[in-house]
Sequence to fold (774 residues):
Amino acid sequence: MREFLAAELPADWRGVGALDAEAADAFAERWRVTLFEHGFLAPSWPSEYGGAGLTPLEQVVLAEEFARVGVPTGIQNDVFSIVMIGNTLLHWGTEEQKQHFLPRILSGEDRWCQGYSEPGAGSDLAGLSTRAELDGDEWIINGQKIWTSSGHLANWIFVLARTDPDAPAHSGISLLLVPMDQPGVEVRPIRNMSGDSDFNEVFFTDARCPRENVVGEVNGGWKVAMTLLGYERGEAAATLPIMFRTELDRLFALARENGAAEDPVLRDRLADAYVGVEVMRFLGMSSLARFLEGHPPGPDAAVSKLYWSEYHQKVTELALDVLDVESLVVQGRRPTNVTMFQTDDVGAPNDSASWITTAMISRSGTIYAGTSEIQKTIIGEKLLGLPK
Amino acid sequence: MIRPHEPTARSKEAMDPTLDDAQRAYQESLRQFFQSKWPESSVRASMEARTEEETRVWRQLAQQLGVAGLTLPEEVGGSGSTQIEAMLVLEEMGRALYGGPYLATVVLAANALMLSGDGAAGKEYLPAIVAGELTATLAFAGNGRDRSNAPTPTARRTAGGWVVAGTAHRVIDGASADRILVEADTDEGRSLFVLESEDGLVRRQVETMDQTRRLARLEMTDVPARLLCAAGEAAGVLDRVRALACLALAAEAVGGAARCVQETVAYAKVRHQFGRPIGSFQAVKHRCAEMQVRLETATAAVRHGARVAVDGSEDLALLASVVKVHAAESYFRTAADTIQLFGGIGFTWEHFAHLHFKRAKATELMFGSPRDHRRAIANTVLAVRG
Ligand SMILES: Cc1cc2nc3c(=O)[nH]c(=O)nc-3n(C[C@H](O)[C@H](O)[C@H](O)COP(=O)(O)OP(=O)(O)OC[C@H]3O[C@@H](n4cnc5c(N)ncnc54)[C@H](O)[C@@H]3O)c2cc1C
Fold:
């Protein structure tokens, strides 16, 4: 892995954060091609579908090295294309679906986004009301999705739609694969609190997709949807602590430079952040041991999701206090979306813009992929067996 | 490999992949031992002074389960196991609120004797410690906060050998230990001694907030003592023992917290109000979930600490601070929530919750408070690097 990275990256590589925003985006696109050519874009997929067929341990090593060096594992949409729908197709898809969609995902021809949440259905996803009806060989889709991340960059969307309006909430839903490049699909950007527009509303007005574009059974989509939601990168247990540690080291550097490290109260909070990120590493090692033994992540994922998202809010709040009045002014390079929606890119300069944006972004960590309240309910009910 | 989400309720310990089968079996026999031999009634009976039962149970622990010799070499009767097994012992002790001689005798004194490299003293005391026949303790200068806070006992050479003078505070098992190791200042620097006589020694048991652990004040007036390590060279030994003691308290904290979570969750399932189990109320369920998160993270931390104590792959003092801060604070929060979630009954003397609450606070404050440790952490991690 190290040889691969040494061969493919410039000698003075300091992480994608050292590039300005445009150069970073351009790098990500080029890097994706390199990964594709070496089979590292979907390292866990079998080689017949263009993956590298790596063992779990190898996947972890790969992810760790990438996180350390500060290169992305794909572009923004790949979390939806590869991690979510690609893996779900490997699990539930027909052979035709796999043969058709998986290569197009890897080549970059198809870029996916996730059409789950609706204005009236967030935490209570089963309350969704987007409808799909069969018309001959096609589904006709009407309704609205919201918070669709990277939807403006996608040309395909996987849509949870109600296909049997008379059935109980969970049993009349199907997962449809819908092309976005058609008159019946309209994407409108939504601006988030950091000022960026990464998520969207998606409107369906008599939009169409072929009858065979259902994953799993018609009306059996809830199970498929849950499989998709649970696709958890085992390697996240290994990479999150690395990312957050790199970020904290950067905060330490800032605190030393501007003297905040001498303030006893801030010093105590900085040390507490260190405790927090170390505990994340220990937790990661224990999840990793389970992952490598072949245990599915299951409700454990709720523990680490809750832990890192709450940790990150605390540490970025601290960062603003370390910056003190400098937090009043946005100055310097703003984080890109290249590495992920969590920390700023590795190698990023220690500017106020970096911390301010990250602090804003961190507020979403406790909302997306199941809010903290929902995670606690999962832990209570699934892990501890408390009654509903 | 990426796998689907298949939520199933399961027992945490049963799944711990970091333990091997033998370790799991050992954990199970320890748990059974404490369940039958050290129920809460024994904890309460021993809260005043050491009971005969306690002495008996300690011998059994040493002789039947080999707890005292786990990390000691075979020459002195130990089994040469690792800190992992020792950590399992401590977790079960914490779960059972065991306050017997293990912490002082084994974690403090036996480790210090081993690390001192004094072969003669080791041969003299360690076999008896392993057999459960001899108890011991170590009086750190200032049990916790900045050492300069308490005037450190001093030692000097006399014609008849070394003598130690001064007061040692909050010495665990100080009133009952058969042998007392003392950290003292000499002209050469920090040194470690074993007191050799009761002459000039006054042991005063003090009333403790955490009644499950006994502390004493030792007043020493030129007590004859034997030097361990060369004079002035005990700092390394004491620092390592202190780190091991922090990890030990953290392991106990995990056991205690596990018990709190287990009991609280069980109660939340059966206690009904407003016609439903209280565990179905989110305010209750979510507190339980937070307890579980603290428990899982603290367990992971303690297990990692034990591995590092074995393989030396990381800075042990720094790691011990991190692990102790997290485990102790987690335990305290969880014990406090336990009282809350049991309601009025949780506030009673007869209920188990206050025993954990007090022990958890004591755990936070012994061998350095969270603030002390965070200060030490900051001094290391915020230091300008290379
Ligand atoms: C940055 C970002 C990106 C996203 N990307 C996507 C995407 O690509 N595709 C997609 O489909 N969705 C996406 N989402 C949507 C996300 O999944 C939802 O926002 C989330 O599920 C919460 O739903 P909601 O916003 O409707 O809030 P609500 O469900 O209305 O929740 C509001 C508040 O009520 C609380 N609450 C709700 N129900 C309960 C309960 N039972 N018990 C206790 N408290 C409760 C919540 O915890 C929260 O605090 C994204 C969201 C964000 C913030």
